[in-house]
Amino acid sequence: MKKIQYIAFILFLSLSSISGQETGDILITNGTVITITNGVLEETDVLIRSGKISQIGKNISAPTDIRRVDATGQYVMPGIIDAHSHIGIDVVNEATDPNTSNVFTGDAINPFSISIYRALAGGVTTSHAMHGSANAVGGQCETIKHRWGAIDPEDMKMKDAPRTIKFALGENPMRVHGEGNSIVPRTRMGVEQIFREGFGKAQVYMEQWDNYKRNPGAAKTPPKYDLKMETMADILKGEIIVHCHSYRADEILMLINVLNDYGVDKICFQHVNEGFKVAPELADYGAMASVFADWWAYKFEVYYSTAYNAAILTENGVTTSINSDSGELIRHLYHEAAKTQRYGGLSDNEALRLITINPAVQLGIDDRVGSIEKGKEGDIAIFNKHPLSIYAIPQMTIVDGIVRFDINDEDDMRMDIDPESDISTYIHYSSDHHEADRCMQDAFEYFTKD
Amino acid sequence: MKDYSKSQQMKNTLYYIVLNLIFCTGIMAQQVAKSTYSDVLLKNATVHTITDGTLNSTDVLIADGVIKDIGTNLNPSDVEVIDCAGKHIYPGFFDSGTQLGMSEVGAVSLTNDYNEIGDLIPHMQALTAVNPNSVAIPVTRVNGVTNVIAKPTGGLFPGTASLINLHGYTPDQMYAGFKGVILNFPSGAKRGRWDRRSEEDIKKAQEKATKKLDEVWSKLKLYAQIDSTEKSKNISSHNKYQPEFASLLPVYRGETLLMVEVNKDKDIESALDWIKKNNVNAVLTGVSEGWRVADKIAESGIPVITGPVLSIPGRAYVRYDVNYANASVMQKAGVLVALRTNDTENVRNLPFNAGFAATYGMGIEEALKSITINPAKIFGVDKEYGSIEKGKIANLFVSSGDPFEMKTEISHLFIKGWNIPIESRHTLLYDEFLSRSPGK
């Protein structure tokens, strides 16, 4: 059996003709086009040339050699974006220090992860491959495009997307470091000081380098290079967007105060289950929020939650997205977004913004993806019914003008290419209730005692 | 040192009274409003009976906790009338496998009461550990879920599950007339991503569990024989105090349903063989890979409780949607299928799980049955629950439309005739914080 798999893998490598950075041409005709930023256009065509949306309108003419997709009776929306995910990476937590700003999830990308295919089959074209929440300052994250079929990890990266970093508040860093290893932080007081220490030291570090650069002759040697300090300094310079795992209102306010003291304004709170309690403060600071549709009560810091969180945040003017943090939920973010209609009565467009343009804003890529607009990247999801209906089935998912999922394709474009796994292995995922919560993956199995 | 003066004591007492008042009011604000119990006429609704089609412009009379009458232009006296024109009535939904009420906060172990120590503990009663005041219960029922199976998890025989109504102040008030013993059938599956066992280790563990199951069953056989002999000859008991076998005895005799948790295709086949061999009255639960062996399950005539529908396939090389379609494949093969979420705090997603099953092959009508009349039949309570029929217990809700659609709103909910407020921690927090006062 192993042998067959190995041969299949080699065959796959040799036959694989689509590389990651390749772009495509495609004409989608006569669909109901949900642009997100410019209303819903009936019986409209969308033309993608060289991976970019080049035209939106009726009866678009295009060269005959371009692939045509008839979307009559179907719904065409921008590719869905997940601002919080851990799919497509081999490892999630470098749980060895309360501050690991020197590591990158971009170094651990696995283009063969089956979760990428499953996410594509749910219309998701871009995800934020985040570091986990074991450390107060976690690693830097990678924004990836789901170029399923590409085999070079580099090809999964969304080139030139802004840098992001994971921060984490509350129980997770307290459990791993305080409870697990008797080092700060064991409390939310300690968590605060990890950030202040990081920023405070980075200020000194920057000053030393600035002095050295101003007058290199004055010192015998340059200051010591420190990647952690470089990263913290880049946050202070506004070059990195902070994405902070958080739950309780008090800790959210704490981080806003810390960031305010250090002049950092690019902040998106993640999970932020009690964000609804401090929505006016979030809106006032310009902080954004990426939340679950309905997860709560799986730990104490999410006990006082409400599924109306996204609606309250939206109504209070906070740029809000719905995320998955899960290889399961990422497959139906359109359904998760629709829950804001049951819980808070958001309009169709408000609900769809939560999984398109809003997460794009949070990742700093809204000039490239998140809506169907001329000049934007050709990332499209096509549904047979309105994507907010329970009866909608994703039909086709396009990334950079290339079809990466097609429900009508033989075997719907999946591939099993893990030569190391025994093909008969069956994993019962739902036997572990919150198996899907991957924020703490790798944090305990390697690091803390049983 | 100054004496504690009387006035100081008075002041303190007053202080504590005030403090108590504030504290209690705070607590009360976290609970939902009381339910009411009176005769109610639901006027002019579209009634989805489940067992007798859909009735337009129809009235439903609720009295004495039951559906007293169904018809057009009902005109009883002295009842509260709720205008349901343009609205829909559905029977309350059943989630056929949850830990609802048995766990308050997942990560806080001392609030988890579903997983007792031991491999052979069928006498552990889920009903004992159901907290009627769990905050998750109102959160669940406002989505139309009126009944759930609360079940223990863990080893080979982890305990006895109970069917409960999601309203009541004591477990007895909530109990809905069914108990079933759980068997976690020896599994050849990895338990999750963390499971680092080799295929060989998994096989060994499965063989060991199978051996244990066989041992238990042969001891049970002996226990039953002793019991039968003693009863027939009217002699005093020689069976020792063995609560585990006392609990299994009605299962052995086919009087109590055995709920056999099994998921992998090969394991399902083994379980079917085992059930047949031992002539057990059983239902399969989990059954994630039922789609691979649907015909065999159908042939056995054994019903299935499956779910969550929204779950990840267990193998990397199968279609992404096999779990969405699983319930439908089994139902189409002829299996009596009920759905479960296997969840705790988000059992409220049951209607959406059914919606996905409907979308991926089952259709709306069958999906509705899988969370109403089908589970009622499986649990032997279909005379009381599972459809809108005259004489059945009044577990039903009124909605603005299709309850599988997220846009739909539920406006009224009745459990055993109690008119339940559409309130939960989640709605109360929304009411308080949508426009916070003071704001910024």
Distance between the termini of chain B: 47 Å
Q: Helical content of chain A, roughly?
A: 25-40%
| Name given to the CATH homologous superfamily of the largest domain in chain B | Metal-dependent hydrolases
Oligomer: heterodimer
Q: What is the N-to-C succession of helices and strands of chain A?
A: HEEEEEEHEEHEHHHEHEHEHEHHHEEE
Rounded mean pLDDT score of chain B? 93
Broad structural category of chain B:
alpha/beta
Global geometry of chain A: globular
Number of strands of chain B: 16
So how many helices of chain B? 12
Question: Which structural class do the helices and strands of chain A define?
Answer: alpha/beta
| Discrete helix count of chain A | 12
Helix and strand pattern of chain B: HEEEEEEHHEEHEHHEHEHEHEHHEEEH
> Largest sheet of chain A, described in full?
8 strands, mixed
Radius of gyration of chain B: 25 Å
Ranges of chain B with pLDDT <50 over ≥5 residues? Answer: 19-30
Instruction: Note the gap between the termini of chain A.
Output: 35 Å
Structure explained in plain terms:
The complex is a heterodimer of chains A (450) and B (440). Chain A is an alpha/beta fold and 450 residues long. Chain A is built from twelve helices and 16 strands. In chain A, the strands form two sheets. In chain A, strands 1, 2, 3, 4, 5, 14, 15 and 16 form an eight-stranded mixed sheet that branches. Chain A has an eight-stranded mixed sheet with strand order 6-7-8-9-10-11-12-13. In chain A, strand 2 (40-49) and strand 3 form a beta hairpin. Chain A is globular. Chain B has 440 residues and is α/β, with parallel strands linked by helices. Chain B folds into two domains: 33-92 and 386-440, Urease, subunit C, domain 1 (Roll), CATH 2.30.40; 93-380, Metal-dependent hydrolases (TIM Barrel), CATH 3.20.20. Chain B has helices at 6-30, 126-129, 136-141, 171-174, 199-233, 243-252, 265-278, 294-300, 322-333, 350-369, 373-378, 425-433; strands at 40-48, 54-63, 66-71, 80-83, 88-91, 93-98, 145-150, 159-165, 175-184, 257-262, 282-286, 304-306, 337-339, 396-399, 410-415, 418-420. In chain B, strands 1, 2, 3, 4, 5, 14, 15 and 16 form an eight-stranded mixed sheet that branches. In chain B, helix 8 runs parallel beside helix 9 (322-333). The model of chain B is unreliable at 19-30 (pLDDT under 50). At the A-B interface, helix 2, helix 8, helix 9 and helix 10 of A face helix 10 and helix 12 of B.
